[in-house]
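Example 9 (inverse folding). The structure is encoded as follows.
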């Protein structure tokens, strides 16, 4: 007896028998992720972004010569989950550490992973100067507009009207100032060769973001200069919304200000 039947134009699940037990078809954890389980909040977009980056590294065949530098944030927990060389930077200082690594190991694929609090609040000067110098590294920003690990308060990228723990009525320009559009700022610098802003709130954006990451790594491999990919990620806990509402909230609120697309280099 089939578990479903076609009623008109709809497929309906039968309820007159117990469905078969679910079975594991395959383990789709990427090879470079040692432990797929994590302790981040349900609905967090950061695991998707990190998975996309490591899949691009594997596709590039650069696993043995990749050195990543992690900042301080929720995503830092992944530094122990990856089968890659990982260095831990002080808060905000990942681009400077990555600069030293690349100059000593020009053959290596060097990338940083930072959140908006780490990069744009704590270490804005580090990433801007790295871009201005045209350092041949790739910096990845996981942007949700929240200091997630240290309390859920406002960051320099929080958009107007966005709720955080200390902007319960939404960010107000008169009181809190305006968000820094870090991708647009970096794109204006002569040393930046490739700059893009993606998102991980739906399958289409995940695929698009992965292409951006691949283009950024290719830019570094060709020695063309600084490359930067900003990835908008979900944080339903910090946004005070239900988990299932987070993808639409990202599209309607966050991406309305931090607009998705290639900002410099590659296909616009």
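The amino acid assigned to each position is listed next.
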């Amino acid at each position: 007896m089939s578990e479903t039947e076609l009623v008109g134009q709809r497929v309906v699940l039968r309820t007159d028998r117990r469905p078969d037990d679910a079975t594991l078809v395959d383990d789709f954890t990427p090879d470079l992720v040692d432990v797929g389980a994590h302790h981040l909040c349900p609905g967090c977009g950061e695991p998707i972004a990190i998975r996309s980056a490591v899949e691009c590294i594997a596709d590039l065949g650069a696993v043995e010569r990749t050195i990543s530098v992690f900042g301080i944030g929720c995503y830092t927990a992944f530094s122990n989950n990856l089968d890659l060389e990982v260095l831990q930077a002080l808060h905000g200082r990942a681009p400077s550490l990555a600069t030293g690594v690349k100059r000593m190991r020009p053959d290596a694929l060097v990338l940083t992973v930072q959140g908006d609090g780490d990069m744009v609040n704590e270490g804005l000067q580090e990433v801007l100067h790295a871009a201005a110098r045209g350092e041949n590294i790739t910096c990845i920003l996981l942007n949700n507009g929240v200091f997630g690990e240290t309390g859920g308060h406002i960051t320099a990228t929080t958009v107007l009207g966005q709720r955080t723990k200390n902007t319960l009525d939404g960010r107000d320009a008169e009181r809190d100032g305006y968000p820094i559009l870090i991708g647009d700022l970096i794109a204006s610098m002569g040393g930046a060769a490739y700059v893009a802003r993606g998102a991980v709130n739906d399958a289409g954006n995940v695929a698009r973001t992965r292409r951006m990451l691949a283009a950024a790594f290719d830019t570094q491999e060709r020695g063309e200069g600084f490359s930067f990919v900003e990835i908008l990620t979900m944080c339903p806990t910090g946004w005070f919304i239900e988990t299932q509402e987070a993808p639409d909230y990202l599209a309607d609120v966050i991406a309305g200000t931090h607009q998705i697309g290639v900002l410099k280099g590659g296909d616009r």
